[in-house]
Amino acid sequence: MAEAALPYIYRWNRQGRKGQPCEVTARGTMNSCAVRFPDGYTMVTSRNALMKNKAATVPLQEQTK
Predict the structure, then answer these.
(1) I need a labelling partner for 65 at 20 to 30 A (CA). Which of 14, 32, 45, 51 fits?
(2) What is the distance between the alpha carbons of residues 35 and 3, in angstroms, rounded to a whole number?
(3) Of 12, 6, 5, which is closest to residue 44 (Cα–Cα)?
């Protein structure tokens, strides 16, 4: 799993994961989700703990090339 391809950054300081890229593997009720980190660690957390990874976003112009 490449870090640059992960679409989210974990914002909260829980379990030493603040600032690490991650991906959402499942969405649950009550605004919860399962996330996976590059080292394979998974956890269930609030979706409020995630923000978009701007480095992983490809500009629209580059997508059409």
Answers:
(1) 51
(2) 14
(3) 12
- Largest Cα separation within the chain, whole Å, is 40
Which DSSP letter does residue 17 get?
-
pLDDT digits (tens, 9 = 90+) for 30-54: 999 999 999 999 999 999 999 999 8
Intra-chain end-to-end CA distance of the chain, in Å: 24
- In eight-state DSSP terms, residue 2 is -
Q: Are 30 and 48 in contact (CB under 8 A)?
A: no
